[in-house]
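Supplementary Methods, section 5.1.

A reviewer requested that the exact input to the structure prediction be made available. We therefore reproduce it here, unchanged from the version used in the analyses.
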Amino acid sequence: MGEPQFHITPGFGEKLHDLLGYSQAVRIGDRVEISGQGGWNDDIEFPEDLDEEIARAFDNVERTLATAGATWADVVEVDSYHLPDDAAYIGERPTRAMAEQFRKRMGDRAPIWTQIGVAALGAPGMRVEIRVTAIVGHAA
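The structure derived from this sequence is encoded token-by-token as follows.
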């Protein structure tokens, strides 16, 4: 199966590693697990617009996957965490923004997805967090 290889995303990942002591991704063999990614910039700041925050979170997932040699094409599972005020119900704004990002990044591919409402997330101002599992090369 292989030894775990931990990866730190350049920019925000380095800052979070120094501050909190964790890695953004782990790869064991062809399996990649990433920590939850928020819609932050490299200074851990969030935009006011929720759709922009969701798009940035997807960008950060992509950046983090890349550190471990994976892409959105390798993603098989997505978990998204939402604050109650922005709860992701089918047809509502956060879900539409999430679905738009799925289509943009994965086309017709459809990994499994679980939406989870939470009371709080890991940083002030954070409204959404996305965590994925990827199997590198499975889509080839």
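The CA atoms of residues 80 and 130 lie 5 Å apart. These observations are discussed further in the main text.
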